[in-house]
Amino acid sequence: PVAGTLSGTTEACIAGTTTFSSTEAGGSWSSANTAIATINASTGLITGVAAGTVTMTYTVSGTGGCPDATATRDVTITAPPVAGTLSGTQEACIAGTTTFSSTEAGGSWSSADITIATINSSTGLITGVAAGTVTMTYTISGTGGCPDATATRDVTITAPPTAGTLSGTQEACIAGTTTFSSTEAGGSWSSANTSIATINASTGLITGVAAGTVTMTYTVSGTGGCPDATATRDVTITAPPVAGTLSGTQEACIAGTTTFSSTEAGGSWSSANTAIATINASTGLITGVAAGTVTMTYTVSGTGGCPDATATRDVTITAPPTAGTLSGTTEACIAGTTTFSSTEAGGSWSSADISIATINSSTGLITGVAAGTVT
Length: 375
Description:
Elements: E1 6-7, E2 11-13, E3 17-19, E4 21-22, E5 28-31, E6 37-39, E7 45-48, E8 52-60, E9 69-78, E10 86-87, E11 91-93, E12 97-99, E13 101-102, E14 108-111, E15 117-119, E16 125-128, E17 132-140, E18 149-158, E19 166-167, E20 171-173, E21 177-179, E22 181-182, E23 188-191, E24 197-199, E25 205-208, E26 212-220, E27 229-238, E28 246-247, E29 251-253, E30 257-259, E31 261-262, E32 268-271, E33 277-279, E34 285-288, E35 292-300, E36 309-318, E37 326-327, E38 337-339, E39 341-342, E40 357-359, E41 365-368
Parallel strand pairs: 2-9, 11-18, 20-27, 29-36
Antiparallel strand pairs: 1-4, 3-7, 5-8, 6-7, 8-9, 10-13, 12-16, 14-17, 15-16, 17-18, 19-22, 21-25, 23-26, 24-25, 26-27, 28-31, 30-34, 32-35, 33-34, 35-36, 37-39, 38-41, 40-41
InterPro entries: Big_2 (IPR003343), Invasin/intimin_cell_adhesion (IPR008964)
Pfam families: Big_2
Protein name: BIG2 domain-containing protein
């Protein structure tokens, strides 16, 4: 007999199969080591048991005194690959990175959707492209009839936060306030120097503490592997002005003047009633207009968010007295008398030359002393 020519795939995976055949029918198959692979005696179906190479024998029995005919063919059984256990941070920011790895070397990485994230096939470096979740696959190629081994791990890509556009008045007075805001909600505020100004972390309310400029930072926390987003805006805190201490004579006659001044320069003067008295805005010169009392205000303009500082001082304007109309006989004899009087009471009389005539200061009684004319 002849065993024929054998054929069939000579490799298989553990638990996998392959089939041997012969050009001669009627024989039977056997395995040299069933611990490596078994073979169905009639069909030639080989099943892998363990990694190794084993010889399969095809035997056609001899008849009429002829010996059996045999032919052999080796088969190699291969252990299936394993993709290992995958690890690595499963979140990253758009344009950020994370890396996956496996306990088994020699494989290659691929992304199920490179519009969400790409992965370097050899290093496992993932780069975020757009927000979303994508599956990464690690593949170890199968050999010797074994299929590829794969393992998967998801990664979530997150859009980075934005701190928005900041706004708000950038100046305030000591003890005064201003408020900053952002076009993006959900962040928190902080001051670079709370000895100059504090800021409420949630409302953005700034309170001036001391003169100076300080940077306020608005922070929106990053999630999903994204870093925090920050934006900054400066605020300048100004010391409030002072109007100083006012001084100057507080009374003047109608058409008369007096001057007010302050211990602080740079301010301007104003009158509460220019019908009573005017005041020069820069010099403080007051001019009486009519009888009465009026308040003069000295104002030093506030800057940097500070209000104006003011101080006040009153001035009283008095009408001038009048001596009235005088009457009385304008001649007298030596040792004789005459009397002068006025339409205005309360005044006192005096003589320009008492060697000619004397006059009683209260009654106006004139007494002649010597010949002459006297006022």
